[in-house]
Design goal:
Layout (H helix, E strand, L loop, with lengths): L15 H20 L8 E12 L10 E9 L3 E9 L8 E11 L10 H12 L24
Antiparallel strand pairs: 1-4, 2-3, 3-4
């Protein structure tokens, strides 16, 4: 995931709001790649119900970051993802995040079940990551050696 000049704030590091854009891009890019579908066109769409980020070390332009992705929980109508932001050459993440999609009918916006294609992709993602004990400064399930998706 390339950083941009505009990502930096007055303090010389990526502004906190930019991380949420990286998370959104990583999750939705992975979903489209893993399902082979344009998820915007499904009868049920994932809306972001919650995001969070714990900042551990600054990153800035012109860093070319890698974003790790795994699933924390797959529910009936929601998916909770874990993400980790890695700086070039670093083994520990610079930030760890949480991103929650709740699926709704694209017309009525009523909560619905996770679409089958999305569920199948998320189940494959979940099965590909072996949990590890959490270090104080990292995600419980993500390390440089265990991340699944890299942008």
């Amino acid at each position: 995931m390339p950083t941009r000049w505009a990502d930096n704030d007055h303090y010389g590091h990526a502004n906190n709001v930019v991380y949420y854009s990286w998370f959104d891009t990583t999750v939705n890019g992975w979903l489209m790649q893993a399902t082979g579908l344009d998820t915007r066109d499904l009868p049920a769409i994932g809306v972001v119900a919650e995001t969070g980020c714990r900042f551990l070390r600054q990153v800035s332009f012109p860093d070319a970051l890698q974003i790790g992705l795994t699933v924390e929980r797959l529910g009936r109508s929601s998916v909770v993802y874990e993400l980790a932001v890695f700086s070039p050459g670093e083994e520990e993440p610079a930030a760890v995040g949480r991103f929650v999609h709740v699926y709704v009918d694209s017309a009525s916006r009523a909560t619905v079940a996770v679409p089958d294609a999305v569920r199948a992709a998320v189940e494959r993602l979940d099965a590909s990551v072996t949990p590890r004990r959490a270090a104080p400064t990292s995600s419980p399930r993500l390390s440089r050696g265990r991340r699944r998706r890299s942008a």
